[in-house]
Amino acid sequence: MTAPSALFLRKQLAELNKNPVEGFSAGLVDDDNIYRWEVVVMGPQDTLFEGGFFRAVLTFPSDYPLRPPKMKFTSQMWHPNVAKNGEVCISILHEPGEDKYGYERPEERWLPIHTVETIMISVISMLADPNGDSPANVDAAKEWREDPKGVFKRKVARCVRRSQEEMSSD
């Protein structure tokens, strides 16, 4: 029997294929596993990430949408809200309920109404407007605050170039 989460994910994938959303594309890593998606995020216009094609994997739990997926960039990414290992750290992907640190309100965290589309729109927004108050990459956050047009900009430009090279070599 197919789990409700798998049916829900198949429906979302079919909808995204039928009506693509600007800024990203999505598909399965492996056709036999509906719980692992590859997404490509296009760097938002008028940001340092413009022109980039950043690959990431979304891994969904079997009880999705009750719990959030995990997102990890496989392309190199230099951003305050992306850990050095590529894991994305934004409120919408945090487990539902109260934040034990008191930083996030429950309504900012995961809610079962979220879809791949709302997740990806939040990630694109995060690229355009980092949250320096809650960094996953402290070094990137420090550079973004202290020298956004210098060393931070150069490191992001390197990631954009590398992402373009990766896409053209496929």
TrEMBL record:
Catalytic EC class: transferase
Keyword Nucleotide-binding: yes
Catalytic activity: S-ubiquitinyl-[E1 ubiquitin-activating enzyme]-L-cysteine + [E2 ubiquitin-conjugating enzyme]-L-cysteine = [E1 ubiquitin-activating enzyme]-L-cysteine + S-ubiquitinyl-[E2 ubiquitin-conjugating enzyme]-L-cysteine
E.C. no: 2.3.2.23
Record's function text: Accepts ubiquitin from the E1 complex and catalyzes its covalent attachment to other proteins. In vitro catalyzes 'Lys-48'-, as well as 'Lys-63'-linked polyubiquitination. May be involved in degradation of muscle-specific proteins. Mediates polyubiquitination of CYP3A4.
Family statement drawn from the similarity comment of this UniProt entry: Belongs to the ubiquitin-conjugating enzyme family.
Protein name as it appears in the record: Ubiquitin-conjugating enzyme E2 G1
Species for this entry: Takifugu bimaculatus
